[in-house]
Amino acid sequence: MSDSAGTAPHYTRPLLPTPFHERARALSQVDSFVPWAGYTTVDVFTNAGQEYFAIRNACSVYDLTPMVKYRIAGPDAGRYLNRLVTRDLRKLRVNRVSYCVWCNDAGNIIDDGTVFRLGETEYRLCTAERQLDWLLDSAIGFDVQLSEVTEEIAALALQGPTSCAVLKKLGVTGIERLKPFEFSCFDATGMRLMISRTGFTGDLGYELWADPRQANQLWDALMTAGRSRGIRAIGSRALNMARIEAGFLMPNIDFVSAEGTVRVGTSRSPLELGLGWLVDFDKGHFTGRRALQEQMRQGLQRQLIGLDIAGNKPAANALLYADRKGQREIGSVTSAMWSPTCKRNIALAMVDAPHFAMGTTMWAEVYLSRELVWERRMCKAQVVDKPFFAPERRRVTPPGDF
After folding, report:
1. What is the structure's pLDDT at 8?
2. Pick from 178, 169, 174, 84: which is nearest to 127 by CA?
3. pLDDT by 10s per residue, the chain, length 402
4. Which one, 126, 142, 308, 370, has least CB within 10 Å?
5. Do 173 and 34 reside in the same domain of the chain?
6. Do 33 and 162 belong together in one domain?
7. Residue 315 belongs to what domain range?
8. Cα separation values, 159 from 152, 164, 175, 302, Å
9. How big is the chain by its Cα radius of gyration, in Å?
């Protein structure tokens, strides 16, 4: 069967275009695309730095369609999800969103994602990677129906201080009353949109969920409404900068799914990743509960922490040492950047006990290339709190009219 555009059959194409691909391709100036969950997406349109500043100072549009989406419905949908994830979803009300993680029996993370409660017995689970096998296995014994609906929903992330103003310009009446982690349905310029006040930037922002047939109409309407508010399409590289500042974790960068690890000791628990606030031992049984309780009893052997590093060279993949001479290795950096907004050299790192205590000093082995000549530096680093950047505007309701 050929696709709707009448081109080659879908199985002859290694990667699928998203519903916004035509508009994104037209704006791409450097032809930089990367794969995500079977789709081709933009890594950078023009310049990652310029796109990053659109997130922090104006408004950005990011194609979120490849985010894998599952519909979970049935009489036992709530019980099933509460058994699956570590967080207590009994507290999740209709039209609310919750960030969750789920683990294997050893207490190591399979994946993270967001759960939307669409109705009393209907939910939507969004993840970065496909998890249908695990979800189906976990559903044994529950009266629940699971289906992947990724291709049925087009999604855009609209993030930045002027994002609410852009939506009001678009005609989304009442958007300013939407609270963080809430969603609702709106009518705007002939389109029916589900809009959630969620995002991956740690800033004021929204995610728009629409019918794929309205993708071009939605893109064009947003660009027109946001022209005076500095709207700009962004790629994954700029988004990655913003999420590091926000202290958010990225699969396959800050952790690897326990289903994908092959080496002993490389799986991570939510406690080790600093996500203990997502683990509710009082809610009853969930997959991995006993293992996580035992880990709490024994004490953590390692933990993901935030680092403030001397200098302005990002410590990407740097090894960390307890001493300046580099004789005692204690961990490694998973994500790093020079933060243009914080004016700090920041990083996320997995560090062995007891060196992850707040305020602990260590040394990062950083390599600098100066006209193809490499230099090795031992840069002082200190454990600091995260997120590194958390503007008040991300929580204020109604948001300021920037």
Report:
1. 61
2. 84
3. 334 444 566 567 789 999 999 999 999 999 999 999 999 999 999 999 999 999 999 999 999 999 999 999 999 999 999 999 999 999 999 999 999 999 999 999 999 999 999 999 999 999 999 999 999 999 999 999 999 999 999 999 999 999 999 999 999 999 999 999 999 999 998 999 999 999 999 999 999 999 999 999 999 999 999 999 999 999 999 999 999 999 999 999 999 999 999 999 899 999 999 999 999 999 999 999 999 999 999 999 999 999 999 999 999 999 999 999 999 999 999 999 999 999 999 999 999 999 999 999 999 999 998 899 999 999 999 999 999 999 999 999 999 888
4. 370
5. yes
6. yes
7. 301-384
8. 23, 9, 14, 33
9. 22
Structure tokens at 230: 């500095």
Rounded CA gap, 100 and 198, in Å?
A: 13
Measured over the CA atoms of residue 247, residue 248, residue 251 and residue 255, the dihedral's sign is: positive
Owner of token pair 């700029």: 238
Q: Count the domains in the chain.
A: 2
Task: Return d(Cα 249, Cα 247) in angstroms, integer.
Answer: 7
Tokens of 103: 């683990």
d(CA 69, CA 249): 19
Question: Is residue 46 domain-shared with residue 164, that is, in the same domain?
Answer: yes
The single-letter code of the amino acid at 214 is Q
User: Residue 41 sits in a domain of what CATH number?
Assistant: 3.30.1360.120
Distance CA 131, CA 255 (A): 16
Residue 57 CB contacts under 8 Å (≥ 6 apart), including other chains: 160, 161, 230
Structural domain includes residue 99: no
